[in-house]
Amino acid sequence: MKRIRVLVVDDSEFAREGIKVILEGDPDFEVVAEASSGEEAIRLTEEWMPDLILMDINMPGMDGLEATKKIKSLFPYVKVVMLTVSDDIAYLFDALKKGAQGYLLKNLNPESWHEYLKAVAVDETPMTRELAYRILKEFSPVDHEADRVSMLTGREQEILAHVAKGLSNKEISAALQISEHTVKNHLKNILQKLHLENRVQLARFAYEQGWMGKRP
After folding, report:
1. pTM over 0.90
2. Are 10 and 20 in contact, with CB atoms under 8 Å apart?
3. Strand partners for 161
């Protein structure tokens, strides 16, 4: 395959160097440019026409999500993969809504980066949620048993359905007309009952059990 031309976008020079080191470990990738802001990413995309953009989410000024939305409207051909250290599932859904084809957690091992980015680069269709969860699966392995859901109360199942749709605690609070504190306590109970450790694992569990399509 021809080399995948990459634009690296991160406001941290240290992070950009680390990303370049990972990519340079595979001859199929070529870093053609670097940007330190969303605005610069848009300009360099037009200048270099990369195949793939690795976009940090949290940057001052125009953040990575807004930059992605703008870039995809101007240059729909380019593939964008969001980079973050956060395990907040809401980021993943927001990234996909903005047009990103992928979502990578920065602490995944380099071999996973190479395989995943190649899959995104050669795929002509937008990234599916199934592919997104394949990456999250490596980050947080989950033992899933559907019958554990029967242990949840009706309210807890409502909250699980909202989590599956990518809603934040604040949005769940508004939807169910309960306080955020109550939502957090319900989530603690849900995690304990399902033997899960964090929201990413919970969202994956909900997805794999088909809760994404259920009405809360």
Report:
1. no
2. no
3. none
